[in-house]
Structures
1.
Amino acid sequence: MGWAGRCGRGLCEGVCPAAGRGRWRSRRCGSGKVPAGNILASAPSDKNLEAWRELGCRTTHCNLEVVQRSTLVFLATKPHVLPGVLEEIRPAVGTHHIVVSLVAGVTIQTLQRLLPPWTKVLRLMPNLPCVVQAGAMVFSRGSSAGDKESALLKNLLLSCGLCEEVPESYIDIHTGLSGSGVAYVYLFAEALAEGAVKMGMPGALAGRIAAQTLLGAAKMLLETGEHPAKLRGDVCTPGGTTIHALHQLEKGALRATVMNAVEAATNRAWDMAKD
């Protein structure tokens, strides 16, 4: 397994779907599937490689070396940097390689055009909670990647959270929903806690309770399979506190505002793909 990139904030400092941010358990990913010594990470400076070395991973400044010594290669660069990286590694890409791109806005069609025609290409989009093995990831496969490559990637990443194969057209929607959506939830959590502070609760306690409230609500959604509206209705009682609070949220157009946010982020992801 290898990581290739020339961006200062590639997976060395950003979201690594298999390793998290500088934390492995017993020098492995959360499930113990990948020994750190099996990973070769490339970045342009020693600073970007420090976290990988602390984990016990092998490091290099040469992207070509990653490809030459690995079978599964993850690309994590800024979009404008990727063409140069692909030009660099193209001569070393063989039929045995699996290339997984985490680069925002770069389509499978573009990846296949810049790599040898036989390359097994997959496009992956993770989100920040992969760091704590609670992420939401989607991926799509190129024309040369088959069920074997799809199953390998999904099996590797399931230890980091939800991982689904989707049509490529869903990836930018996922960015607006889940990639950027994490920030919407943090904003809501902050507001939730500040409301409690306004009413007299200490900030640290309010923050912990707000976080646990979001965690519990999400867990109920996943484990019960119920529609959010059904669970919301279960909390409401006639004339009670919740329905009065929900009325205020509706007056503030919470649902419409969140829908607009997902739409705006998705449109921006589409625009990035066109640039």
2.
Amino acid sequence: MILLQSHSRFLLQTLLNRVQNLEKGVELDYHWVEFDDVRYHIQVSMKNSHVLLLSMSLPTPPPEAIFFGGLPFGAIEAIKAAYGVLVQILDPPRDGFNLTLKLNLSKLPPDEEHRHALLVKIASVREVVLGAPLRVILKQLASRTVAPNMDRLVAIVHRPNESFFLVPQVGKVTVVFPMRFKDSIDIVLATSFLQEFMEARRTAGLNNVPSCLWSSSPPLELKGAPGEALLANAGFVTFVIFPRHVEGKKLDRTVWSLSTFHAYVSYHVKCSEGFMHTRMRRRVESLIQALDRAKPELENSKKTVQSRSFKRLSLNEARTNSKS
């Protein structure tokens, strides 16, 4: 199974190309969309080739997810902590976007390794912004505290008009994903995949990973959630995160794995569907070959044709033959 990368490959490649040709005056204007309907826009003008404007549009939040100024709570603080003086947040952002960052590439560190690590972090802006609420709650879990003003049930947007839910407690955080798919085949494959995913938790050597449960009905943790959030045609997946899962460097991996879990499942569902179609085509081809081999061989009947020769006569010979 594959784990999705936290950074945008296209964004990282664009940043690397721009840094390598920083002295060349170029004009860039790129639009693209990545998984879960996250839209990006990059602009570089000829007048100031050192400055890059990066805009990002987030998935449309459902009513239960709380945004402040068009961003999840904790996003502004997370951006400042991740990028420091390299990035300036423009207020208001560009039209049609939730966030616009002004990057001064001339302020990148001279050390190549440090500079590349910072560019990867910039290319991971999706994780920084959308994962900000999750990071805040899991940091509190690491210190075994819960903010006094924290709701019992926290909704975090991860897909257009869809969210997953956190139940923060002092010693653990329960994470519940309502799994929804549009295609009927995807629903069947996802249900089977998630049941196997849950069984894999019992494999030897995975005792320290978060516990995973799947159920076809909403778990008790979602009591009080909006009715629309309780509609999931592929069931509900529940993870229980303990402080040991967010210690040190584990925090970043846990935040990214949880915030992209639905995309991770969707990826493997589509791979499974493609694999099944390939196997079906190969099976049909093998059956056709077997049927061709089973046909009785027809005897080749040789038809003998009497050979005839023709002689072209001259005009005088033809007249002679006609008179005789």
